[in-house]
UniProtKB/TrEMBL annotation:
Family of this protein: Belongs to the class-I pyridine nucleotide-disulfide oxidoreductase family.
Domain FAD/NAD(P)-binding: 5-315
Domain Pyridine nucleotide-disulphide oxidoreductase dimerisation: 353-458
Name of the protein described by the UniProt record: NAD(P)/FAD-dependent oxidoreductase
Keyword terms of this UniProt record: FAD, Flavoprotein, NAD
Amino acid sequence: MSETYDVVVVGGGAVGENAAARAVRGGMTVALVEAELLGGECSYWACMPSKALIRTTQAVHAARAIAGVTADFDPADVLARRNSFTSGWKDDSQVEWAEGAGITVVRGHARLTGPRALTVETSDGPLELSARHAVVLATGSVPSEPPTPGLADTPHWSSREATSAQAVPARLAVIGSGVVGCELAQAYQRLGSAVTLVSRGTTVLDNLEPVASELVEAGLAQDGVTLHLGTDVERVHRDDAGVHVVLADGTDVLADELLVATGRRPATADVGVQTVGLEPGATLEVDDSGLVQGVAGRWLYACGDVTGRAPLTHQGKYAARVVGDAVAARAKGEPELTAPWGAHSATADHGAVPQVVFTDPEVAFVGRTVRQVSDAGIAHDVVEIDIAVAGSALHADGYTGKAVMVVDTASRTLLGVTFVGQDVAELVHAGTIAIVGDVPVDRLWHAVPAYPTISEVWLRLLEAYGL
């Protein structure tokens, strides 16, 4: 069997869905190929289920932070609510949406076989697909695990098992102190596990501003998470007592389940990229329109985690919209708007990427850290203040938080901003707009924050800067 479309998108997660939808909107016929559930990692094993696990316990802890309020939760109800956000790990509604948007959904594992050509292994046998104009790879990423002795032979959780578990283990060991490790360690501790977090890094979230790492680490410890930082795992094994995580100093961490959260790598090992001269398993280097570099003919595109640019759902969807629009415009011979901030240029990937770490305290940041700006040799000013405004005092008794602002000395525009504290996620979009818009701090001074809200911290940052 063989079929031909204007565009074939490989990977039906949130990123692939957006690329396909934009190409259809541009007048293209599109096949969207997915080997698992349409909606991908974010919908079923990452963003949505993990935040559903986190939200209830955060809300209860937030309520308890106000004098005179009592609140509690049932872990079983938390898991049931989480299940509802994944539609019970069924993708009927996602398929209905895609077909309603004019996208042809193809079930199976796709591999490139040459320029604009793919073979899809479907339940009905091989299907040959060809693309008149473009193939878009949006296959995401997979867990990257360390070569720890015994780990490969020891059943353990990745983020998938952790976000889809139907019971809370009495004891959970977590290897890794990045975003996934910290979020899920705290979530399970609050759900009733005795959690131990192990990391070779000397601090958690070590790529963020130091004050963010400090406050999150304190939050984990306050919740009762046992931290073993700055240490290696020597070996792992399981016996009748549970999973043994043996540390370099001889400590034997015993748990019922082990979550390995040591990063992810692009899922390009089994998509046939070698047939067009690329290295399987490697990151796909793209330009700002999503064109894969090193492949002749301007037909192969990529977006999302496979590009290594910004492994975040929202940023991948942004790049996917750019790709879908660029593919359609080029196919129709329309002008290519690839200048910085043009419709066919994912310029924001370079310095305006927002992210929220849904721990308690939350971390919300956009742009570059002080360390990144210093390493780039950019002259800059730094403002760091406590989040101590009327809005935060009303929000929680004893509210503790920090804000860090990095300003380009020459242009007096924001390079980055970080907020740490309870419920700071909604503050970061203002920073994103300021960075994308190159808004000078002198103009930002006239953006008056509402009183009494936590967003009044913007006024305090600017005052501390000298305005």
